[in-house]
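DATA SHEET
Item: assembly model
Revision: 1
Owner: S.N.
Input lines:
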Amino acid sequence: MRNQMKNFALIPALLLASAGLAAQVTALTGATVHPVSGAAIENGTVLIENGRIRSVGSGLEIPAGAERIDISGKHVYPGFVHPLSALGLTEIESVAGTVDTREMGQINAALRVEVAFNHDSALLPVNVAGGILTTHSVPGGGMVRGSSAVMAMAGWSWEDMVIKAPAGMHINFPAGAASDSDNEDLGKIDDLLEAARHWHRAERASRDGNAARPARNDQLQALGPLLSGDVPLFLYAGKEKEIIAALDWAKDQQFEQLILVTGADAQYVTERLATDKVAVILNGVYSMPTRRWEPYDMVYAAAGRLFEAGVKFAIGDGGGGFAATNARNLPFHAGSSAAFGLPKDAALKSVTLWPAEILGVGDQLGSLEAGKRATLMVTNGDPLEVMTGIERVWIDGEEYDLGRNKQRQLFERYRDRIQFQQQDPAP
Amino acid sequence: MKQPMKQMMIGLASLLLSVAAGAEYRPDVEAWNIATAPPQQTVLVRGATLWTGSDDGVLEQADLVVQGGRIVAVGPGLDIPRGALEIDGAGMHVTPGIIDAHSHAAIIGGVNEATEISTAHVRIEDVIDAESINIYRQLAGGVTAVNLLHGSANAIGGQMSVIKMRWGAAPRELIFKAAAPGIKFALGENPKQSNWDNETPRYPQTRPGVAQIIGEKFQQAADYRQKMAQRPTGRRARDVAAPRPDLEMEAIGEILSGVRKIHSHAYRADEMRALISIAESFGVTIGTFQHVLEGYKLARRMAEHGAGASGFIDWWNFKHEASDAIPYNPALLAMAGVLTGLHSDNPELARRMNLEAAKAVRYGNVDPHEAIKMITANPARQLGVGNRTGRLEAGLDADFVIWNGHPLSVYSRVEQTWVDGRRYFDRAADLAARAALEQERQTLMAEVLASDEDDKEDGDGDTEDRDDGGLLGYRASELAHDEFCHAQDFGHVQGIEFGNGK
Amino acid sequence: MRILIVLLAVLVTPLGPAAELRQPLPAGYAIVGVRVVVAPGDVIESATVVIRDGLIAAIGSDIGVPADVRVLEFERAEEQPPLTLYAGLIEPYLPLEVERADEPPPPGRHALIHPDFSFDARHWPTEKVEAHRRAGFTTALIAPETGLLRGRSLLANLGEGGLAANLLREDVAQYAHFNERAPGGVYPQSLMGSVTLFRQTLMDARWQVAARASWQRNPAQARPQWIAGIDALAPVLDGTQALVFVADDTQDSLRILDHVPADLRLVLLGHGAEYQRLGDFGRKPLHILPLDFPSAPDVKDENDRDVSLEDLRHWKRAPENPARLVEAGFPVLLTAWKQSSPTELLAAVGKAIEQGLDADRALAMLTTAPAEWLGIADRAGRIQAGFMANLVLVEGELFDKEAAIREVWVDGQRFELAKIEPPEVDPAGTWALTLSFSGMGEIEGELILSGPPSRMEGTMTVMGNETAVSEARVSGKQLQLRMQGGQGSSSINMEIEGDRARGTGTSPFGEFSVRARRTSGPGDEEVSS
């Protein structure tokens, strides 16, 4: 009888134990931990539980039953947050069938990119191996382009991987409007926004029972979150005059949240950007200077100048299909900015915490802090340095199999082949 | 505008000295407006980390002496020659000048002569743009020599030209005369015209066709050489019409005689094997494969044949034939014994080749000094100037770069670039010149506003009419690229995609 | 001035005398009491020039006037500048585009290679000849403008009667230009391709001479294929005929020097930026320089970030280009090529003189120097007995901003461009015009004129189309206007009485009569009608 009692006692214990397995804690120990939100922690520990960071610190108590991973001599960083990319939306630039970033037509407000996000794109594992663990994938094509989405870089479906959608509405400010107040294209956008405001007023009125429902219109409906301030506007403008005209226009339109996507000319408008509290996504550091007669480092130095002026910004890589294949080079844009004036810790933030904050997911990503997603990487050094290797990756608390990277697979196969050939001379 | 003050301390003494000694040379955005070439100087760089590019490897706390345009000595504790400019190298690194073996950055009037499958007679040296701002900006990135060559529109493209980055000199003075003659070939999707709307298609449209036509051209050239060798001379020549001299056949004939080396754009393993096979059947050794994306798949074969490999390291998947490109390619090629180099194929990327070399360390654990060789000594050898430049070694040209930190670090910057013992780039001088250039621009603008010309138009109309993706004032040659290589996507030149509205 | 085609349904009879009713010409002329520039630096303050049978018979300050010639004396008012007589200007490059056939060329011929091309009488460019003549030119080298190896030029006076009456010399020089693309998308489509085609062609030209000669001597061999047209390069290759090479920019100039052997007679047709790299040329070939100085870049305000430093510099420095070349020892001629109209050249020369070009040198570049180069120094370029009576009579001095060309003489034939009397009226202001075409009704237009009577500027608007007035002269009470439109040139000649005017005009669509009423004066005050 006693044995049976023991068995019965065992069952709750087993049940308790299985509940404990579901709440498995992973402990990364022994490394230098770089929270980004604070100073680096020597010999630190990161505790991961249920997909989230449970705690970060030194001398942490590690719960019983935790999976311990000793990464002494290494470094732990939050994953890079790519602020503007075509990841998931493109495969091979020259093969049109694989490219979903160039819709036709000028007004595409109703597009939502996440529905075309290919979760098994070959580009994802390759770039995860380079530390890009979160991507803000954006629509392309036309003036009013549609809504973007912040996506995790691993998952079983795009629905799985959505972190925030819609993340914002994307509008390309017509360059001609910089010198022509009567610009036809800008007029079209104005008309569209006016129509949308009207449509939403009518929609609200009909819900209140005061009017009939307005006719269904996907484009106008899709502009709702922008007009109500629920999502920010990502406004694309290039040269200095275009930026100023775009900012003036955005002010007139009274958008609640404005994020400017632009290039190096932002450095000429820093006072205005700081005063108006406009966040900037710097559209690539590896570009030719805007004007032939400008200094050779004018683009490299842009981020540093934004920083000095107190402008909130994130560093991107130019975006688009070609850049997406090498999104993993994003941190080097930040590193090169640091070579020309941006402080190193600001450079790191500009590709981790600051893009997360600008994208409205700063509570979940961009730093190693309790409560945030356990989306992080283990490196053998400073990940802004090109020579640094990224050795292990976790996304949402699960370790990512870097063997999925097809480039790594080809490397290992052919390395073995070459070594074999060098032993046995027959080619 | 505040100037960044970081790391000026280390080079401060040297800056003062350098500004005093090099006071005559003032950099300018227009090469013709540079009154005198920078003087050839006797220089001692003291106590730096020297990346020799030779078997001497990396020398810490060592000295470099150059004189008369050559490197005179390399090593610790060297004596300072009389009258030498002494540069304090503490904390600094010195590498040989970077050599970009695949560039279209300074070519006028078209990078491709796409009309016929073979245009072997066409020469880059006839169209070098000595005014291309890319020359100066690449000097600022440590480049001292580039190989200018054709695009990839034809199987046999044309004769390349290696130049030294002598900013301010006339076009013919840029030519690096010691370089071995070379000729550009192309295999794969581009010469078979698969990626462009072509109203007048020409043979071939398949890879077997490309291989066939190359073999046929070789045979024609062999026949031509024979006819020319057998033509009558002396008194008999009066009565017998000589065969018509044919520049195309002569150029291909030089390949067969070994005088002119093939440098072939190639992506897929099969097409490279095909070219090796054709070459070997004519007794020819290929100089290099360019881009060589799948080179790792035939690395041993390439090593045995004797071809070198020059590639970009991490571009992939922009065309289908690039889907198996991997950044471990240089590491694997080097492991297999292939002379391996890295190139830019892009005027903007060419400014930061040191970071491309750093990628070879990241992908495949190439030793850092070996990685430096991939952008210096190795391309020098591939271009036939291995005994002239590419290493810090006595007797070689004084082509070197002074960095303010580890040359493969993203945080480092080029402080000075020397070519032939002349300082063509000096960051301090560049910073000093900026104010003067901007002042000149403002003064001229004020003159325009004050003048009574009532018919003011945009410049000469030439630069304004192009859709340069948001760039202003550039010459067509400065934005030129191989339009067939990257699926005609202009945005790569800037690293900015058109789709994002720039 | 453009008029809708619908109005041209009816042909218009000319209002002037029919060609057959020409008055017999006088035996000769004597121009009396004008300032004469015999040659640059050689000036006679008041002289008489006797013209007879198309030649200058005599010139001097104290020669008598023969009894049988018509005497031309000009009344000058106090404030008017003196009249000056110069030798007619010589244009060293008057390009003519030659129509290209639509079909691809036959075997043995490349579409860009036609050095064997020569002009004939049907190519005579009447309009261009007139335009040049009005600018003071009396002789021009007419050159082919299309292709890589373009063909040969001919030298002619700029009178009436076509080539037959004006030809001086045929086959003067060969022409070339690197930056050409073959029609139809065939080779070459790049600059390097064109340069290579040039090299191969020069090689072929030498080879063909020898190969054909061999076959001629010995027919028992395979006959070499014949390449059309390149035999015409023989005189260039042996140095007897000049090769005029059009250069697009300084690096093109250097490229040309690299590719043309030093023993050929190379002439460079310049581009205006030679000052940038004079030291790199090595050789100093003769340069024919256009003076199309760039207009100022568009500057919005003093902080305009988008104005190119390179453009600003060239705008500033281009006018000194001729002076720099002269300083560096290059022989230089000037051409009106690339000016919007040939009359603009003289103002441009004035600008070059301001920037350091010696004024006498400048005049030589348009007279004695081209005469020398073209082998007609014994009959043109100077006002001298025995020389062709090619003259230009200018109010003021030739390169003055205020100068105006009054008369041009070619082979002793007088072309009066304007009646020369002191202006008695001031036509400045806005005029409402009514143009009457015989049988076609009336059209309204507007004319706006400003400036001093001797050098007016303005615009003419008809049917909503605005055209600039290219020349406006006042002589006595006569106002003479010239306009250059898309279809051709037009002129109006009116007599002004107060605020009204009447006269006649010509246009590409026919002749008309015109009435005008001034609606406002130059200060925009309304004029009471």
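QC remark: Chain B touches chain A through 78 residues (CB under 8 Å).
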